[in-house]
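FORM 12-B: Structure-to-Sequence Request
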């Protein structure tokens, strides 16, 4: 009877330990899965933020290039006008002599 009681006790301990291990393993797997989902979500958000930043940067560069182009056109126009005025002033001055 002692042997039967010891065997039953050993079997109970073994089952309880196995059950705890399975529960712990399941919890660990669930936690790992949740972490994986969190990482995936964070990676997507990061990717979206980078994409948005790249678009905004591209837009800003484009606007800056447009401003530079307009400024260059204005400078060219003003330079031509100044040269034209200078030439006419020189022509006018030489005719007076």
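FORM 12-B RESPONSE
SEQUENCE OUT:
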């Amino acid at each position: 009877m002692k042997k039967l009681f010891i065997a039953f006790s050993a079997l109970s301990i073994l089952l309880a330990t196995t059950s705890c291990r399975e529960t712990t393993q399941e919890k660990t797997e669930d936690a790992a899965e949740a972490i994986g989902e969190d990482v995936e979500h964070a990676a997507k958000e990061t990717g979206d933020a980078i994409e948005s930043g790249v678009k905004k940067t591209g837009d800003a560069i484009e606007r800056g290039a447009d401003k530079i182009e307009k400024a260059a056109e204005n400078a060219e126009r003003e330079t031509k006008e100044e040269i034209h005025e200078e030439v006419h002033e020189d022509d006018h001055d030489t005719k007076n002599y």
